Each structure stands twice: as C-alpha cells, then as structure tokens.
C-alpha cells in the first residue's frame, strides 16, 4: 500500500483549448492538491470536463504535469514511468484481452515480465480465492461470454494479481445498467475494504462517490473545491457550488434581501433569530435550504405552490416540489402529510445557509447536524 500526495499539480493541453463557462481559457488541472492515506479510498467527483480523468492519468504516470509533484510514500514519482509505479488501473471499458479466457487475462502480466509459469499459476490461484465466491468460474470463460459486472470483476482481479500499491479507477461501472451497477458497486466496495489498497476512484455520479469513498473530493474547472466526508460536504460546504452539487434533492437557493432583521423573499418575509441577524450583512443575499431544513405551516411562511409530490414510504417521508419565485424548492414532509396545492414554508434557521448575492462565499453555515 502507498500513501499518496498530490502537490499543486498543473496541466495544460497545448493542442486543445479548455474553456471556462465564462469563455476564459483554463488549465485542465489548475493547482490540484490532494492526499490519500494508506488504505484509504478517495472518490473524485465532478461533471464532464472538470479534470478528474486527467488527474488520474497524472497520478498513474500516463501524463506528466507541467508543474507540481506526485509522491508515493514520500518519494517523488512525478516523472517515473507508469510500469514502475506499482499501479493497477481499472477503466469503464474493462480493457480485457478478448481472445484470452479470464485466467489468461490474469496471468498475462507474468508472461510479459518473463516470470515463471509456476508463479503465474500460484498467484492466479491465490487471487481467485481472495476475490471470493464464484470468481474461479470466470477464469475459464472468454470476455464475450461474461456480463458487464463479471468482466469488471476479472479486470479488478487482473489488477490485484499484480499486488499493486495503488488502485486507480476511472468510471469503472458507468457502462452497466442501473441494477447491475448497484450490485457491482457493492462488490467493488467489499473488495477495496478487504484488500485495503489505497484507491483513487473517479466518477461523475454523486451517489457512487458517496458509497465508494472514505472521503470525497469535489472538482470543478480543473480545481478541487473541497475534500471531506459526505457529512462534511453536505453540512459545511466550502462554497455555493459544493452546497448545490452535493445532496439530492438539491439545496434550494433563493434570492433574498435582509433588512432590519427580516428576510424578504418572493411572496413573503421571514424573521431572523436575533443572534443570526446580528452576524449577517444587510442587503441582497441568497438563502440556501435543504429539503429537511424547512418548517411547514408556519404563521410567517412564504407560499410554495406544490407542483409535484414524491412519497418515500421506506423513509416515512415525502418530498414536496414547487417554486418560490423562480427558485426550485424541495421540502421534506411526513409521508401522511395531506395533499395540498399550496403550503406555507419558513427556513429552520438552525439548518439554513446564507451566501453572497454575487459570489459563492458563505456568510453563514450552520454546521454538522443530524440530518433525519
């Protein structure tokens, strides 16, 4: 196993212009720093083009950074060749040799490195045992006869047989259908915990990142916006982007104006608690509220016109969806809450966030609270 330090890594592609949403050019990686402890799985999540796959390639040695360093166990490997880094990579397309059975895919590493057949046989057998029930049956089949999940298990086994010090996984289950993706995700997580191999796991799927990672790194525009556990990202986001990116249904963000301890929003005003009113600026702001952060049927509530209701019986709750002005709002309600076309809502100020009107910095973050 290896600890990994990524220090201020920058990477710009000369042949391809990478453009911000505002039209400005930016590097593919713009001063990225991230650490992974031995045996830790860190999920890197972000939208397409944010730089997460480029980061994986730089850590693997498939790309070299323009500046910055990559360290394994404190040793600088920034310009060390990939085959000398002891890295196992798993991709979304599995990358199995189609003419070889599962066993041949696992043993091929030993063939190209002039290792003995005895060692290849022993390591393949040991890996099959470690991979768990049913894996040995996959070794006698060619990839075309395997399901997507089975192919991915063989691809992971091919990495494990090499005894890597670091796993790099790039969208490994994105090609699977929803049901198979969920089952394979559970299997991969069990294997990562069992082998305790340091892992950098790249995905665009928030739920997958939460499930797989001990910690999560949220990327945007070639930068890491925040790193932390899901609870930390959810409850104490570093900025408005992280606040709205993490969580489903997403946080409602409502333009508002603070004046004399009251918050004016479309259709109503809310009274601020005295201690919070004294710490916030007056004037234009944006109020952020997650679904569980609303109070229903309060006297000074703003009217929410309900356009859709989703019941979740397993959680004994439901979501009410509507608009407050132009803001999309989701509100958690009891599962047996009566059907209404309009409800009155007020933020629970112990759970509400306040952000700048024209920027992303938070004026108020309530901190970690019990979610439900």
TrEMBL record:
Source species: Actinopolymorpha singaporensis
Manganese among keywords: no
Plastid listed as a keyword: no
Domain ABC transporter as annotated: residue spans: 4-246
A GO cellular component entry from the record: ATP-binding cassette (ABC) transporter complex, substrate-binding subunit-containing
Keywords for this protein: ATP-binding, Nucleotide-binding, Transport
One GO MF term attached to the UniProt entry: ATP hydrolysis activity
Name of the protein in question: sn-glycerol 3-phosphate transport system ATP-binding protein
Gene3D superfamilies (alphabetical): 2.40.50.100, P-loop containing nucleotide triphosphate hydrolases
């Amino acid at each position: 196993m290896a600890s990994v330090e990524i220090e201020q890594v920058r990477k710009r592609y000369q042949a391809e212009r990478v453009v911000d949403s505002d039209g400005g050019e930016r590097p593919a990686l713009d001063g990225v720093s991230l650490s992974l402890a031995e045996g830790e799985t860190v999920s890197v999540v972000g939208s397409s083009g944010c730089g997460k796959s480029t980061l994986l390639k730089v850590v693997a040695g498939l790309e070299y950074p323009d500046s910055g360093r990559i360290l394994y166990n404190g040793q600088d490997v920034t310009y060390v060749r990939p085959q000398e880094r002891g890295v196992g990579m798993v991709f979304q397309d599995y990358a199995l040799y189609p003419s070889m059975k599962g066993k041949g895919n696992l043993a091929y590493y030993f063939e190209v490195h002039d290792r003995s057949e005895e060692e290849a046989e022993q390591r393949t057998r040991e890996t099959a045992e470690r991979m768990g029930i049913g894996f040995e049956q996959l070794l006698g089949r060619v990839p075309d006869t395997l399901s997507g999940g089975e192919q991915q298990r063989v691809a992971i086994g091919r990495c494990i047989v090499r005894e890597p010090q670091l796993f790099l996984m790039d969208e490994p289950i994105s090609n699977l259908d929803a049901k198979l993706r969920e089952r394979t995700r559970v299997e991969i997580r069990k294997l990562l915990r069992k082998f305790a191999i340091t892992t950098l796991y790249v995905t665009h799927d928030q739920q997958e990142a939460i499930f797989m990672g001990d910690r999560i790194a949220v990327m945007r525009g070639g930068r890491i916006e925040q790193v932390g556990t899901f609870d930390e990202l959810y409850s104490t986001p570093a900025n408005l982007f992280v606040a709205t990116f993490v969580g489903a249904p997403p946080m409602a963000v409502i333009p508002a104006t603070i004046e004399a301890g009251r918050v004016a929003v479309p259709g109503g005003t809310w009274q601020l608690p005295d201690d919070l009113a004294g710490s916030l600026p007056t004037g234009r702001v944006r109020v952020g509220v997650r679904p569980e952060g609303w109070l229903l049927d309060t006297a000074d509530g703003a009217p929410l016109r309900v356009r859709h209701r989703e019941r979740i019986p397993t959680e004994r709750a439901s979501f009410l969806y509507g608009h407050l002005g132009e803001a999309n709002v989701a509100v958690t309600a009891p599962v047996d809450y009566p059907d209404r076309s309009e409800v009155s809502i007020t933020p629970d100020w112990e759970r509400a966030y306040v952000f700048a009107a024209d920027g992303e910095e938070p004026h108020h973050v309530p901190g970690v609270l019990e979610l439900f």
